[in-house]
Specification:
alpha/beta; 27% helix; 10 helices
Length: 264
């Protein structure tokens, strides 16, 4: 599906370019404006993955950054400089990420305050993670709404409220608790992952999705799976029972390959 096809599709199209502890990037377009939410792979790899879906980095209009961890910002600086892209980032995250270097242009947002990129309305909201000022996002235009929430230790009431009514949800399903507890990670790291500022377990995501499901939900993507402490099969099996009143597509985003292009 090439970009001209996306333009004629529906209100929004989204592609998970990569998801996991070694790099995250989400491509989103309304057919006119093209955005990357995070760029946690090298610039060259992001270009390659865009090309594999008939897309082009030179057509991007903006980068949006959720937080400063390297698996979310590795390619931000180089893409911004190469293509003269504005980077939407909150001030605390920018200060915590000197490795970004000089940016084409930094446009600061504040969690809780919506901003727009052309016709796309973006509402950043605070999430619980061990970063300076981490954000989840909803993106809307017309009647379509997409929610993205990864890298969060708990789904707070604020998170649940912001994610209501989305037609497409990207939700973290980071680990299987048994695999984590019996796995090779040192105890402090296991505690960090399981903590309130760590990552959601599969069952946490199941419970969150059970609350968020509604008749207008069309796609759910499970994201940021641990290579060591989870498998796509375990994540899918744990979360799928949450979908009791609607039947959206449920897919798992992978680290090594791009996902399908999803439209709402």
């Amino acid at each position: 599906m090439v970009d001209s096809d996306i333009r004629d599709a529906e209100n929004f199209s989204l592609c998970m370019l990569a998801s996991g502890s070694r790099g995250n990037a989400v491509y989103l377009t309304d057919g006119v404006t093209r955005i990357l939410i995070d760029a946690g792979l090298s610039g060259v790899e992001i270009e390659r993955r865009l090309n594999s879906r008939g897309l082009s980095a030179q057509d991007l209009d903006a980068l949006v950054v959720s937080h400063e961890h390297s698996d979310h910002i590795q390619g931000v600086g180089v893409l911004s400089r190469k293509y003269r892209l504005p980077v939407y980032i909150n001030e605390k995250t920018r200060l915590a990420a000197p490795q970004l270097g000089k940016l084409g242009e930094a446009r600061h947002f504040t969690c809780g305050t919506p901003f727009t990129i052309d016709e796309i309305r973006i509402h950043p909201f605070a999430i619980s993670h061990d970063a300076a000022d981490p954000a989840g996002f909803t993106l809307s235009r017309g009647g379509a709404k997409i929610g993205i929430a990864t890298d969060l230790g708990i789904a707070t009431a604020m998170v649940r409220e912001h994610l209501k009514g989305c037609a497409l949800l990207v939700l973290e399903a980071n680990h299987d608790p048994t695999m984590l507890s019996q796995g090779p990670y040192p105890w402090p790291l296991k505690q960090r992952i399981r903590g309130r500022t760590g990552h959601l377990a599969n069952e946490d995501t199941r419970d969150l999705l059970h609350e968020l499901q509604h008749d207008g939900l069309r796609h759910v993507v499970l994201a940021h799976l641990s290579d060591t402490n989870n498998t796509p099969e375990k994540a899918f099996a744990a979360v799928h029972p949450a979908l009791t009143c609607c039947r959206p597509s449920l897919s798992v985003a992978l680290q090594g390959t791009c996902g399908d292009i999803l439209s709402v």
